Amino acid sequence: MPAWVYFIHPPRERFVETITEEESALMQVHAGYLDQLLRDGVLILAGPTFGDVNTGISIFEAEDEDAARAIMLADPAVQAGLMTPELRPMRVSFLRGRD
């Protein structure tokens, strides 16, 4: 199945350091969404980057671009307009533990 990466770009630099209570609550819902994708066998990995720019990275599988875009756009942080999404196709070439 094809792999995809979607980035979620935060609304400002140092987002992790300056997150508000409302944003934190929304990011908890976002985390629950990713956890469900992981339990459903869709998500390969996800997490934030640190430093001045805290872009989130999610790598997942979807049949085609439409399905991948639907997964990305269903992310609560994207739906709420907090994060700006970016989708790219990718190939998982190296993965620890993969035969």
UniProtKB/TrEMBL annotation:
Pfam families: YCII. Residues 12-83 form the YCII-related domain. InterPro entries: Dimeric_a/b-barrel, YCII. Gene3D superfamilies: Dimeric alpha+beta barrel (3.30.70.1060). SUPFAM superfamilies: Dimeric alpha+beta barrel. Belongs to the YciI family. This is YCII-related domain-containing protein.
